[in-house]
Amino acid sequence: MRLAVLDGDRAAVVTDTDVHDVTDLLPTAAGPYGGPWLPWLENGGTAAQLRELDLSRAQTRPLASAVLRAPLPRPGKIVAAPVNYLDHKAEMHEQKTIAEYGVFLKANTSVIGPGERVELPYTDKRTDQEGELAIVIGRTARNIPAERALDVVFGYTGLLDISVRSTEDRSTRKSFDTFTPLGPWIVTADEVGDPDALPLRCWVDGELRQQTSTAELIFPVAELVAYASSVMTLHPGDVIATGTPAGVGPLAHGSSIRLEIGRIGTLEVGVTAEHATAYADRPGAHLDTRMVRR
Length: 294
Fold this sequence. Notes:
The protein is α+β, with helices and mostly antiparallel strands.
């Protein structure tokens, strides 16, 4: 099944042509920040329960006219995998991969949904798109072995890991507000099947920049979940970004980004530099000069 969010934090199930508002059919209500699906997942919601819903009782509208929001507007946490494709390692001239770097965290306040806009923070620093498959955790997991790791996965979605090419560490460069477009919906694991065999393509302004298969992941999905759970406890509603392939490139004011993942769907967002400033004008930048003078 495909789980989406409508305006007003309304929970929806998406079928081929329609969107069914199931808010009033769920045993939980939307939380103050995490939307309707996070508390439902935290309360033990399963795909089997969704299949039992009587969609004839739900208000229905055509998918073509529905405005979708991020399926998890503020996940519990966002765990991200750096350098998890060998071709991206080569293009970025990296000496290490996820095996040496480990994972890092992105701010959960960086999430936006379909149709929203990435806000470029700087006028003079390159900011790139990174298209990725994202894992949505459905059960609490700590030190879970790889052979059982897929058991704790609820589903998958698309994710854009927007990244400023500056000197700060990964968590800073990738955590600006709007830097994690997510969606268009969560597809339950039973519908996705093998997560390590999904085609992934990403366009910017109609130019195909990234094209790969998740079969090329250095740490495949189960191994990544197992590794992440060895570092930190994973909770329902947590998101793991699996890493990006080669083809990252600069964004500009007015750009459009389209991410398409097989058996998941298509996520499209815009880009604006309306409020961008010079890198030297960022808060605290003047203190670097003061320290050098000392």
